[in-house]
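Q: What structure does this chain adopt?
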Amino acid sequence: MIVGTSTRDDAAVYRLNGETALVQSVDVFTPVVDDPYTFGQVAAANSLSDIYAMGARPILALSVIAFPVDKLPLSDMREILKGGIDKAREAGIEVVGGHSLEDNEPKFGLSVTGVIHPDRILRNSSARPGDILILTKPLGSGVLAHAIKKGQATEEEIREVVEVMTRLNRDACEAMVEVGVSACTDVTGFGLLGHLIEMIQGSGVCAKVHAGRVPVLPSVRSRVRAGIYPGGTRKNLDYYGKHVDWAEGVEQIDRLTLADAQTSGGLLIAVPGDRAERLKKGLGEHGVETHDAIGEIVPPTGEPRVSVVPD
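A:
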């Protein structure tokens, strides 16, 4: 076992021989959108992200689905599975089986297997002082998914957040592997703050985030200002906020947004400073529209902490 649970990394890695290691992860969650096919796509993209965050290549997947057969039509279950299968095929792999069970609420996800050379694994625990932090998707999917559940999201908001959540992190993975980076993790349920704090705790460093440089979906701030955000976002801020030093001028809206519980978020990449521009250029060439430098890794000054400044 090369990577296990000690640093709360995105996937487990098991060395088979000197050339090949298996990368394994599983992720299952409840619907974040109303359309079953789209939910299947989002869940599959989210599951695949753990493999991409390790710099690995997925090779196959198994599905895990729970469904209330006495409450919803089986056609919805078929559409969920179809969405997941189609997204997996977009990633170049097949869903080769799986497991189903009856439950009171739909749940879906994939167990994904990938491969990587043992010497090329990207961990979340190898960031170094001088690294630049780059984020490859805008924040706010948790806020807008909550608005969808409350029946308050506009068609434009739904379109924007679905595009973000169904987008594979494959192209971002390919770009960072080509350039060579220090560390990576994907931004999901613990929010940007939570996953960054896991990164610096595993690496024994500190980080600085410029709140004004963090990409956010257009209407998210106004939604947060109106009190529309999920309970998980509030819990993230309460829990991880203990490890954050907030500069004067960082508003509560920004704090909640940075802690927003994401679904199928982007990659958070720590890249050496002299390679940051190459990575941003490479991401753009791979079609990754969001490639914002949002902060930097700094030397430790006691316990690992994140400082957040307004700009």
